[in-house]
Amino acid sequence: MLHVMTLCATVGHMETIGTGGFDNANTAIGSVLNQYLFECDITKTHFAQVLNANKSVLSRKLRGRVTWSATEIATAAAFLGLEPNDIMPTMHINNGK
Q: Which of 55, 48, 53, 42 lies closest to 4, judged by CA?
């Protein structure tokens, strides 16, 4: 598998986002990955190859139209030098306290 330099993991201003403002977790994951692809100057064609997907499927995943599998999340994270949790949306639960 191709690996990108770990410098992408040091994009300091990237923060894990919640699902708030996004339709669903898939949209949030796609948004985070789009930011990393842009910041690290990685083409969607190259990233699709890394995920063993075609470019149109990747495009739909990045827009939140297609579900991300756990394997794809792990592969994307490893390629970018991240942990899967770094690209997963966070959930804030209000338990009434």
A: 42
C-alpha distances in Å from residue 87, one per residue of 73, 75, 94: 8, 11, 22
Q: What is the distance between the alpha carbons of residues 50 and 15, in angstroms, rounded to a whole number?
A: 23
**pTM to 2 decimal places:** 0.72
Name residues whose C-beta falls within 8 Å of residue 19's C-beta, 6 or more positions apart in sequence.
25, 28, 89, 91
Which has the higher per-residue pLDDT, 95 or 52?
A: 52
Report which of 53, 48, 21 is spatially closest to residue 33, judged by C-alpha positions.
Answer: 48
Which DSSP string do the residues of the chain spell out, in sequence order? Answer: -----GGGGG-TT----BSTTSSSHHHHHHHHHHHHHHHTT--HHHHHHHTT--HHHHHHHHTTSSPPPHHHHHHHHHHHT--HHHHSPB-------
**Could you give the angle at the alpha carbon of 76 between the alpha carbons of 75 and 78, nearest 5°?**
65
Q: Which residue has the tokens 């991240």?
A: 82
